[in-house]
Amino acid sequence: MALTPMRWLAVAVMLGGVAALVILREPAAPTRNTSPEYQYHLREERAAAHAGAAAERLVVLKLLDSVRRANPNAMGAPPFRVLVSANASPRVRLVSERLAALLLPRRPVTPEVPVDLVLLVDTATRIRGVPLAAQHGLLRTDYALPTVGTNDRCVVLTRTKELAAGRRYSDAFGDLALSKLLGPCAYYEAFGHPGPRIDAWLRRHAWNYGLSADWNRAPTKWKTHPWYYGAGARLQTFYTDDWIMRRAITSRGYRCAAGDVSSCDSALFDRRSVRSLQSAKVWEGDLVTTRVAVDQEGDRNYWWATTAEELGPREWELLAAVVHDFGPDPFRQFWQSREEPRVAFRAATGHDFAEWTREWAQRTYGVQHRGPGIALAGAGYGVGVIGLALAMVMFTARRRSIS
Questions:
Q1: Residue-range domain boundaries for the chain
Q2: Could you tell me which of 260, 282, 95, 272 has the C-alpha nearest to residue 183?
């Protein structure tokens, strides 16, 4: 029986149906390692993580106590100070001078809360036998927030490291580092102490949204980093942007970017069910610590090591985007309000907080689509490949001869 073009087409359709059944079948439940040895290993890892976090917190508290003893809140002190540790090398002192020169012009004319930027050289690798997490990046920051009703300064405790000869501190002066360096302290400096219910919301989880202080610049659309360089980088970015986006945001955040306002609301105000690593953690004692150095992107958005954040890899810019969109005065009204955040936001801006967050997510990541489906470009390429394959098969069939 000769294979005519129509029969070739019928065979292709049948094979496509079989492939669809294979691809769309219900996957089997993943197997879990329930051996006692594996469970003990998991417990040891969790215990080591908790011990490392406790050791890190102890280091920060010791450094903070030392800084406050050496630099009390002296009357007449300038509202913005850049301080450097005594053991800093001349190169690190030049870094502090350069940071001061770059940051001073950006400070408000009449600051509400004074700020200290303290630059320390971090050489510790262990404390009381517990290994500390390796410092990736140049500027790792912790923020000691001022106590309500006092004249405390907001302290930015910045730890850097001595670089080997030939390496430069250029990343410390980039736009990314400068936008995040003062973090929460920039909000206290510009807008004063938050209202009690706004403060409680921030301490629960929302400081993740307030790590950027660059509200004079419009936020840019997020783009993935290519996992390799050269001619293939453009193809990788074109074909896998959607895939990396889904790995870089939680399912609730993705639904928000897809237009579900209720998911935006729960992402803003209910993070109890979130298991992802947070950008910032608030310790007791008004101490906010960040997960990564400020001169780094803030997420490892390569395809093999993406960390899912609640509102995606740019959630740390959310509050800065509010200031940019509505202006400093409405944001100050929201910030200092005694109402809960939803009511305060609507009163200050005239907009619903969750609806604005949906619009921000779509501006930042693009409009996402709910439900199963493929992108139009992907469907077009797929149809093109199938058509090319069929054309080649039909051409070969026409030229086939029997001797």
A1: 54-193, 194-373
A2: 282
